[in-house]
Structures are given as C-alpha cells and as structure tokens.
Sequence to fold (1136 residues):
Amino acid sequence: MRFSKLVNKTLKETPKDAEVISHQLMTRAGMIRKVGSGIYVYMPLGQRVLKKIQTIVCEELDLAGAQELLMPVLQPVSLWHESGRYEKTGKELMTMTDRHNNEFILGPTHEEVITDIIKNTISSYKELPLNVYQIQTKFRDEVRPRFGLMRGREFLMKDGYSFHLNHDSLEAEYENMHQAYNRIFERLGLKFRAVEADSGNIGGSKTHEIHVLASSGEDEILYCNHCDYAANIEKAVAHMAIENESGELKASETVETPNRESIEDVANFLDITAANCAKAVACKTEKGFVLVLLRGDYEVNEIKLKNLLDVIDLEWASEEEMKSLGMEKGYIGPIGIHQDVKIILDTTLESAKNYVVGANVANAHIINVNHGRDFTPHLVADIHSAKVGDGCTRCLGGTLESARGIEVGQIFQLGTKYSESMNLTVIGEDGKPTKLTMGCYGIGVSRTMAAVIEQNNDDFGIVWPMAIAPFEVNIMAANPKDEEQVKMAESLYTQFRNIGVDTIIDDRNERIGFKLKDSDLIGIPVKIIVGKSLAEGSVEVKLRKGGDMLLAVGEVVATVKKMVDESK
Amino acid sequence: MRFSKLVNKTLKETPKDAEVISHQLMTRAGMIRKVGSGIYVYMPLGQRVLKKIQTIVCEELDLAGAQELLMPVLQPVSLWHESGRYEKTGKELMTMTDRHNNEFILGPTHEEVITDIIKNTISSYKELPLNVYQIQTKFRDEVRPRFGLMRGREFLMKDGYSFHLNHDSLEAEYENMHQAYNRIFERLGLKFRAVEADSGNIGGSKTHEIHVLASSGEDEILYCNHCDYAANIEKAVAHMAIENESGELKASETVETPNRESIEDVANFLDITAANCAKAVACKTEKGFVLVLLRGDYEVNEIKLKNLLDVIDLEWASEEEMKSLGMEKGYIGPIGIHQDVKIILDTTLESAKNYVVGANVANAHIINVNHGRDFTPHLVADIHSAKVGDGCTRCLGGTLESARGIEVGQIFQLGTKYSESMNLTVIGEDGKPTKLTMGCYGIGVSRTMAAVIEQNNDDFGIVWPMAIAPFEVNIMAANPKDEEQVKMAESLYTQFRNIGVDTIIDDRNERIGFKLKDSDLIGIPVKIIVGKSLAEGSVEVKLRKGGDMLLAVGEVVATVKKMVDESK
Fold:
C-alpha cells in the first residue's frame, strides 16, 4: 500500500465526544468514523486490524475443533417466544417488522437460531459433542452508547455454541474453549484475566468473563490477594468483617435524628459506625415493591437483587410511592410499612443485632432493632456488592482487591435452558431421547480492537502488537526529493512485499517529521527511514515500542523480517 | 476435517419449496438451512464456499487498487432524506426504530453512508481518484423471496464506490472494475456476460450487469446475433420490423367487435394482424393516470415506463377507475377519455397509420385511427420491451436473440447524483470547490454461490470448481474395517494437509457407495479411495468432473497436488 493512496485522514485534535483513549486514538488515526450514536464505519486502516483479529480468532477456534458457520441477522420472533427470552429482554432488543407485518429480532446473540438448526441437523448421540461458531454483526440498543467501540449499538462479535450429551462433556469443552481463548488473547498481545461473572440474560449456571485489565474498563473486578479467586463485582461474594454478632438484644427505642438522612450523618450523630446501621432501600419492580436492608457500609448489588427476584425492571421507589407504602424518604425502615412490601434482609445483617433503622417518620430513627423480634424479613439473601478488604470465600485467608476490566469474552455453561424450552433431544446410546446440554462462547471482536489500544498506547498514539498492526513496516525516504533515497525506499518496499511482510511506503511529499508522527499515531511497529546514512550503505530502523538501529542495506530486509516473524 | 465430526446432514429428498437446482442441491448437501422466508443459515460446508468466494473477490479488488472498509448495517434515515432516496424507495426498504424513536434503514446499499464518510475524509483533488469496497450483509424486503440464495431478504453483497474529479477518471475506473469483475468471475469458473441494464433505484447513467447464463435465470437478456450488443430486457432497445408506415390516412370508423376484448381476438375478427392494432394499457401512478398505446404485438416495459414518468408506484387501473375516466375495459382507446389521463404513444406506433383502437364503449373498436388527427399524445417514447427477432440498433445488421441470466454483479456510473444532493466537493487544482463524480460496483456474493451451482451440477449433485469447493480432496478407505486401508487413508490425509491441500477424510463407518454419493452430492472435486488395489501399491483417484485413475501410493500426493493447483 502507498500512503498517498490510502483512504485515510489523521486528526490532530481529540474528538470532543471521545472519553477513552482507544476511542480518541482510533478516531485520530482515522481507523473509525462515527455514523450515528454507537454506530461506526471501520475505515481501511481499522478494517485491516479487524480482519487480522478475525483471522486469529478463526485459526484458534478451528484448531480447537469448532466449525464456522454464518447465521442470519434477522431472527423470527417466534423462536424467541419459544425460548421464553423475548419477554425477558428489555429495550436493548432491536426489532423490525417486515412488509407482511412479521416481527424479527436483529440478533444480539443466536442461542435460539442455533438450537433450532441443530435440532434439524443431528439426531443421534454419535454426532455429539459438536461446537460451531460465527463472526457476525450484532445489535444491542444500549441506553447510552459510549466509549467508541467499547459499547456500541452495532458491533462485531464471535459467538459459538456447543452441544453435549452430558455435563462432563460440556465441562471438557468449556475448558477447551477457555484454553483457546487464552491462546487467542495471548496472540493479540493482551494482559487479561478470567473472572467469575453473572450469566445475565443468556442464562445458564457457570460462566467466566475474560477481562482485559485497563483503568478505563467499565467493569470492576474483585480478586483475592492470596488465591486465584477473581470475579466481576456484579457476582463477587465475600466474607465481611463481622461486627455486632454477640451480645444481648436490647430494647428498641425511637430517637430524634433531626435532618440526619444519610447513613454517615446518622452514624456520626449517634456516635456509632455505619456498620451498626441498616441501610434501607425501597425498590419498585414489575412484581411489586421490595425493601432491601443491608449493613450501612455496603451497597446494594442490583444484579444480584434482580436475579434473586427474577425481575427485569428494577428502580428506586419514588418519594410518593414510599409515602403511600408507609415509608418516609431519608428515614426508611422495615417497621410499620405496608404489608405488600417484601422485606429482603441482606447477609451482611444476618447475624447483626441492635442496629439502627429509620423510623418511617421524618427526623427519627429507631435504635436497637433486631430482625425476628421487631420485624420479619421475607427473605435473607446475598444482595450486596463485595468490596475491597472483604475476606476471600475461596481460600478464607486472603482479602479482596480491586481492578478495572474490559470484558472481551465470556464463556457460559448454558445447561439445558434452551434445549428444554425448545425441546432439543437426540437418540441416546440407550435408544431413548436424551435432552442436550449446551455451552456458549462469545468474543467481542470490535471491542477487543479497542481493548488492545487501551493497553497499548503512549503519548504519540497507538502501539499495535505486531500480530494485528494495520501494517507491520512503514518505509519512507527522509527527503522525498532525493532520488537515491526514494529509489532505495521503493526497492525495500518491493523486497518486503515479496517476502510477505505487510508493508506500506509513505510516498507523500511531506516532511519526515510529519510522516513519523502519522506512523506513530497509527501505531505501525517498524519504521524504516532511508536517509543520509544511505551514503554509508545503511538505513535507520525505529521500533514503535522503542529502539533505534542502523542496519546495512543488504541486511535490513532479512533482519526486519525475522523481527516481525518473531514478534507475532 | 473429519467427516465424522462435520456438522452436516445430507438429504435424499428434494425440499418441497426448492424450485431451482441450486436451492435443491444446497439444501440436500447441507450447505444452507432456512430460518425464515428468504433468510438462511450458511452451515459449515456452505460457509467454507462463501469464504473462498469472498477471498477471491477481495484479492482481485485489492489488486485492482480498491481498499476494503466496513460500513454499518444501520443507516440513519436522515442520510436517505438528504439524498432524496428515502421517498423514492418502496417497501423493499427494511427499517427499524430505536428506543429513542430514531428511524434507521437496514442497508440495502451504502451510497449515502460512503458519500457522507468521504465528504469528511478527503478535501483535495490530490486524494482522488479513490475506490473503496466492503463485503457485508444486506437487506431487501422482497415481495416474494424465492429460489434460495438467488432472491433472499438477507444476503451477502460486495459493494464498492469510487470517487473522481471528472468523467474520464470515472470511465477509466469503470473499465478497471469491469476487468476486475472479469477476473473474479473467471476464477469462480463461471460462464458470464456483461449486459446493458437499467440503473434502477441506485441512479446514474451508464450501467452494466454481469449475468451468469443459466436457464433458471430470473432475467431475460437480449443479445445481437451479429455484434456484441447485449442488454437486459428491461433496458434493451431494438428496431422493429416496420409495418403500415406508408399510405394515405383513411377515414376512421367505429365498428362492432362483439366480445372481442384481446388484441388477438380483435385482429382475427377484423382479419388484420396484431401489428395493425394499438394495444392500450391504462395505468395508475402516484402522479396520476396514464394511457399507454403501443403496437399490438409488443408488451409494455414497466421499467422504461416508470423511468419515463419518474414514478415509484405503477399499477394497472381498475375497471372502476377506467370507467370514471371514460374508458371501457377490453375496449380501451385514446379517443374521448378524460383530459387528466396522460396519453403516451410508444415508438412502435410512432410512424404507424390507420390502426385499430378500442372505442371506449363495450363491443366496439374504431378502425383507421391516426394520432395527430384523431387524438394527440402527450409524449412519444420507447416504453415497450424489445423482443426476439427485432433488429439490433447497434450494428443495424443483426437480430436479437434471447437468453436467461442470473445477475451476479452490476457496475454503475453514478455521476453526480449523490455528490450533488449531499454536496460532496473537494478543492480542485484551480483552488475552487469541485463536485465529485461517482461510480459504484456490486457483486452478489451469496447469489454467486447459487449461480455457480446453476452452471455446475449433474444428476449426482454439485460439481464445484476447484477454487471454491468446500474441500478439494476427499479421502476414504473402501473398507473401514480394513486396518491397512484405514492406516493408508490416514497417512494420505496427513500428507495432503501438510502441503496445504484442503482435505477431508471420510472416516465414517459407512459403506463406500454411501460415502461416494455424499461426496458427489456435496461436489468435492477429487475423491481418493484406498481399496483393494492398495495390495499392489496403488489407490484410486476419481474426479468429480469425470475421469478415474489408479495412482501409485508414492505418487498420488504430488500428482493430485499438481492437479489441484492447476485447476485453481
């Protein structure tokens, strides 16, 4: 490729709406252009990277025994009714209606379609296990698309599905995919970590997310400083430091707490710790109202709460709603409220005694409250978010620390969720119909491109790993008016291309400083500058990751080729 | 790949809804599975072919200097308002509305998006010409999806766009793309022909369609038996044999034609030829009613008529509508009708005299009618379909013959249609804003897969050209219980894979006849059977296109490898 022909435009200014570095650099380097909120064009430079990522993904999955296919974007809504997922998915689902008034879903994932297809393709246990995948454009109507390719509404995803006769076979393939994912993300040059996670709308039991560790990550990960436990905060469980577990039950008493609405204010005012207070949160769901009580120094984990209640919509109750249910904003408590409100006691309070709750009248709290005696929770469950400093439940020795992560992949053990609702069986070895067990495996292909940049950049731009750089080598004459330099640059360009090095020649009539800046912004790993040293028979080689050298004209091709191959 | 692991199911029965051979064979071979009307899954075997086609398309386009990018499926409707195409496109356009009530188009083509992107990417004449393309899933809400991948609602397409400072540059790139298309379709092993065509909804002036010649083709192509003129019937022009052009104007006269409504009946009854009658067709459009008059032995060409009138909707007027406008069904004519009906005289009648028209009363026609004297047409234009036997307008010597074609590609000279409506300019060499000129270039990737089968099949199944066969070689032991045979088959499988031949081994515990049938249905070019002749140190090689040979075990790998390479 010749730079003068490349359809591209680099920008000096950081685009206003780009909050994270990958979005900024991809836009500045000309790799992507925005078409609408969360919708992008991959320009030629971006498409080159995207294709290289796809090739690596396909190579490793094929090696691992998965087979590529291609499912449609448009999915008949009937399949989603069959699985029961249509009703459970909120407004993120994009749909369209055809000229005959049939509704279709613009696929966010393809569990239903693949289950239906496999049902019509295999019939015997002999054909199992099997694993198929696709790389395809997916759709999700995010409330707030942001961070460029990190949270778009149209994105490229690899989704794979495996089918098994039994759980052992699923476990083996889950591990096989986990290993394949490790190889993929290693080849992409990423620092990543598999963490336990919530299975969300997809369903199933065991699931891991693959997170690229980066300060801009949207997810918080808690990990043990002692063992290998790591989990998304939405899922993480922990031992908290227990307080108040012993002692006699004291008589409860209503006390005045004028204008003390927050846990902090109440604790200060009463000269106790937040851990002695019960935080009360009133929520509204499609199944009714709930009051959640948890220890004052913890936060409600909405995902755990949603899973517990099996609800789709969860929001804080309004002041009016609270009032109508006998609750007073700022002074909420479990005592004396309407009986339709379901009280959920978090495990952080399970063994607590003599804590403080709101009195449900303004400017008052009740001290020395005890569940069982003063009120009866409907449920006791873990619905709080674990936090830094909590104890690890796996090793019981370590404590949890926190990191930010970008989720680039997820593997699920779906179990029989889809095969049951959609009735997928084969004839088993015993001649009887056997319900299949499924796994599913995703990689956010376009998001991975962004994640690589989040981990590989500096003040000058992107620092692509060799394996997915848009070009491996960029050749330029220091002085485009020097015929000898230009001739040598062109000769090297031809030589590199002939031996399969992905090379661009910057043949633009621009100053060398301008060209080097563009090259570093775009992130090309190797720059070769044919300059004054040509008189002594050598050219300059500059590595994007750092390192300059002078190489003899007769050696540069072989040496750089070796360097390129070794770093892939 | 091992056949025992391949996620596939071949079928003996031809699926009921499959009308054409490609649909039948792709379904029977397990290459595609239907998900909904006009919506398919490409199963692993189909996906392998699809990817090979895509690779060839990309290689040739890259070589021709085009650059790949990837645009989104979702296109903001505002861009289509800007170009003015939203209003001009009918119900084929699929749209969706997001959670914020913004409307998006599911892209059928991408002229608007690319024009907008290029507007924001280049600014100077120095950056031109340029040519970009993508391979992407496209959407079109066909009234009647049919013929499998030939006319689907979701399909894979390559669409490319070029931008130029002037028409000469566009002409040169148009020719460059034409040549690239020739190379692509040659590599795909197709017999094809470029024909003149209508530019349809895309717009622009000059356009050619690339047609694969096949009896199942949806399009009729007229071509000259003397020169290289060839055109889609929707566009074809011709000289017709002229009748009635001399002679005096006779006095017109109303005659009774009881129950003679068709041209044929009227001509027989009056003992004249159809060419002496004027066929009158009343149409309704969004701009009002028109009456088309053409020679009785020709048919109205709806596309020519729509283009002439610049309308989107065109349908025959109903009996009631005709009545209200002074026309009588079966006896329609141009005389005495409501003045709001626009009369269009086709060129077939331009020099005609003394012809017969309906009298606009039941059971009567008027003979010896002459335009200019008895009625005045609003327009005279070519709105008939040329037909076999008409004279060629290019060479004036030959006559037109007919063939069926499958349109697999189309190249357009768009001119300034989009750059004008969307205001795409660059600074020209003279320092002033210059409006750009565009070309656009499409290939129906998934349709091409079907077209290849339409041309390459026999009673046993598909006969893939080597370049895009799902596998190049299929190896099997004649007797899967014979250890020596199995060992040699496995050894050959490894040897072939090691030298990069795309090989499958049929390791299923099935009879050899069954395996050979599957192989031929799927269309694998080379079968290698390790059978009894192994005792004499040879194996059997059977070519799908015909030809059997015994090859020594020590030679078979090199010989077949050479055969494979030479036929790609």
Q: What stands out?
A: The two ends of chain A are 21 Å apart (CA to CA). Residues 471-566 of chain A form a domain with the Rossmann fold fold (CATH 3.40.50.800). The longest strand of chain A covers residues 400-415. Chain A touches chain B through 58 residues (CB under 8 Å).
